[in-house]
Write a structure and sequence with these properties.
- The chain is mostly helical and about 150 residues long.
- The chain has one domain (about 1-150).
- About 80% of the residues lie in helices and about 0% in strands.
- It has five helices and no strands.
- Helix 1 (about 5-20) packs antiparallel against helix 2 and helix 2 packs antiparallel against helix 4.
- The longest helix has about 45 residues, at about 25-70.
- It is elongated, with a radius of gyration of 21 Å.
């Protein structure tokens, strides 16, 4: 998990800079920056997902080389050959498609919350929609970090 701290710190640094530069620091601009943050986090998450696809592709190659080396006479345990679907390149690409779709939903939440905020100021609906975006973002980033951590 420590290997991701720097990347996540840069996402938050970008958010702080977007909030602080050439804008008055007030509650309205802070709220606008806060409702935008899940989108920034998800794009970092997609970068992690790309890293994951590269890692699992390399892992598949290692397994294939191991199988070829074991064909010289030693017995192979079939369980060693079984690779969970999300640890295959195809599974990684499917995850990428799902993440892009869910990122679109979070962007829609961001835009809808921003629209409600511009009409009514900070209100319950915009906070609720932003909360949905944050919940989805947190779920997705924890899931991909757990997948990356599981690649050995």
């Amino acid at each position: 998990m420590n290997e991701f701290v720097l990347a996540i710190a840069f996402v938050f640094l970008a958010a702080v800079l977007k909030y602080a530069i050439a804008r008055p620091s007030n509650g309205n601009n802070f709220f606008l920056a806060a409702i935008e943050l899940p989108v920034d986090i998800l794009f970092a998450c997609i970068a992690f997902l790309a890293t994951y696809i590269v890692l699992i592709t390399n892992k598949q190659m290692e397994k294939a080389i191991e199988v070829i080396n074991n064909m010289t006479g030693s017995t192979i345990d079939p369980r060693e050959l079984a690779i969970p679907y999300f640890q295959t390149t195809q599974g990684g690409v499917l995850l990428l498609i799902v993440y892009l779709f869910l990122t679109t939903i979070v962007i829609i939440c961001w835009r809808k919350s921003e629209e409600l905020f511009s009409l009514n100021g900070i209100n319950t609906k915009s906070i609720l929609i932003t909360g949905i975006g944050y919940l989805l973002t947190l779920t997705l980033i924890l899931f991909i970090l757990s997948l990356i951590k599981a690649v050995k």
